[in-house]
Amino acid sequence: MVFFRKEEVAANQPTTTPEEGEFTALQQAIEKASLPQAAAAIAAGELSRLKKTDQSLPEYAITHSYLTFLAALPWKRATDDHLYFKQVQVLLDKEHYGLAQVKERVVEFLAVQNLREQKKYDLLVVDDEQIARTNLGYVLAKEGYRVETAANGLEALSQLQKRRFDLVLTDLKMDKMDGNQLLEAAKQLDSDTQVVMITGFATVGSAVEALRKGAAHYLPKPVNFDELRAVIRQILNNKQRLQLSRGPVLCFTGPPGTGKTSIGRGIAAALGRKFVRISLAGLKDEAELRGHRRTYVGAMPGRILNEIKRVGVKNPVFMLDEIDKIGNDFQGDASAVLLELLDPEQNTHFSDHYLDIPFDLSSAIFIATANVIENIPGPLRDRLERIEFAGYTEREKLSIAQQFLVPRQLSAASLEEQALIFEAAAILKIIRDHTREAGLRGLEREIAAVCRKLARLCVVDQTVNHGMQVDAELVAKLLGPPKYAHAAGDTRGRIGVAAGLAWTEAGGEIMYVEAGIMKGTQQLILTGSLGQVLQESARTALSYIRSQAETFGIEADFFSGRDIHIHLPSGAISKDGPSAGLALALALISLLTRRHVRPDVAMTGELSLTGRILPVAGLREKLLAAQREHMSTIIVPAANSADVQRLEAEIVEGLEVVLVDDFTQVVEQALEC
Ligand code: ADP
């Protein structure tokens, strides 16, 4: 008997070099990734190339990173949906206050998703041989399809007339009505019905004829059941994809901080899916989305596949944020990439230049967000279904802060145990003095700041005790002087300054119009980054006043030997739109009659050259802005009265909305005596 010492055994073991170890690890990772056939072939080719490449060459690192990326992609990995449908509403309500219409539409969307996934397909098996019928029926029922049978073409036709079937599997040669005749009749009844022809007389001619007449596939007898299952699965999958492609992609629109991302996360949570979000704002190059070809040095995959790799599953809820903000100087066709991504017919083979192998993204749920949907290019916009998120009233902000933001920020600052109580007055103080927004981002940030400062007091000074009330006074001390003063805070109005209500991407805003007159050469000077439409509104307002000078008690030649200057403050921000017409004309009248404009009056409305007052858009956000600024009277075109009536009572609370159809009414309402 020969004995070896331990060291000798170890020395005789085949040793692996570090490179070999690396190859094996890579190979195992690729095997584990269960790549589709085409990708597996490419991976094998690249791996054998890597083996032959010298490690010191740049090609080695490039191929190695490529294969690592390839292996890390979730080609098959997906989370299982666990949609407890009755729970969806509960889950959304648990995390979100209000937003009734948004939630309703989201629940409808998920309901369709749910039904689609649970959908059982109806199949009709037609064969004059009973044994063949029964066998086929049995195999397909075992696959989970609902199967009916018919003994001949006529019997099948009568069933098709009574109800719809997703797929008909028919013998070709039959008495009374053969498979081809049945195919024609079935297609006439419903062109969506798919027909698979089966025959024992497999001739190329009959196959071609059946396919020409619209059969989806052709199988010879005796039927290979594996082939049959695969064919049927493929036909029905395609059909489902087509149905999906008819469904829209949700696009959440509205000002920042109104809960769009949050609801997106809610959908993912309700479905048990992972959530991914990429911002498209300022995107400059198609390669950012689709990656660079590997021929470029330092090439990388695009952001879409990078995110999919990061999240590790191919079916997340994928939020494409700010789809309306893709940079104007975008290189390439952004819409084309996004259309490819959002179209279920195309996203089964999404192409990333770096990967260079199609990747199936069809099981992801895409949701877009935009501040202004009109800025999205036409073909892309057509694919989107808009769901509007509106700004919140002060009361809504207070409730959301009490129920969600304060508890979340207290916990983020590890203050749960102190059981601090934020008084409503304290939250209102933050809302009024430290934020000016339609949404909640600023409010959440300020609450977070208060909580951090409280945490500091708790540790350093130990002045925070259990169950302490956080009141307005403490908030004022912690946050310092108010960040914003209210526009209506002035007790007396000014001459030549009128408050217009503007709609911006961030919600409504008060926009002041200032007018001045001076010696000159009858010029109208316009400043404040005014767009074309706004400049024309100013000219129209001036011409209207010149033509109606007498009505307003202004001397007829007030313009001769003078210049008029109209300025809109915040000159760095470009402004446009027709709805400042009333404010422009009122600032001018105030200037020319030397009457003060009431400081608590704001207005919106387009003014025509003949003095007609035309309706405007964005009333809800504008009235919310007026409320935020503590205005009391709002002048709105009478033509908008239906819109005003549709608004919830809370939006017009504390506001006197005056509907006007003549400019003299505006003067009466807005000028002090
Ligand atoms: P957006 O995506 O529209 O910019 P977010 O979803 O990021 O807005 O919302 C900003 C913050 O406000 C988040 O913390 C979010 O949870 C919260 N929020 C917004 N709307 C609501 C709501 N209706 N109920 C509860 N929290 C909300």
Describe the structure.
By secondary structure, the chain is an alpha/beta fold. The protein folds into five domains: 56 residues, no CATH class; 126 residues, 3-Layer(aba) Sandwich (Rossmann fold), CATH 3.40.50.2300; 140 residues, P-loop containing nucleotide triphosphate hydrolases (Rossmann fold), CATH 3.40.50.300; 86 residues, Helicase, Ruva Protein, domain 3 (Orthogonal Bundle), CATH 1.10.8; 174 residues, Ribosomal Protein S5, domain 2, CATH 3.30.230. Helix 9 links the parallel strand 3 and strand 4. Helix 17 packs across helix 18 and helix 17 packs across helix 19. It is globular. The N terminus is likely disordered. The site of adenosine-5'-diphosphate (ADP) has 18 residues, from helix 12, helix 17 and helix 19.
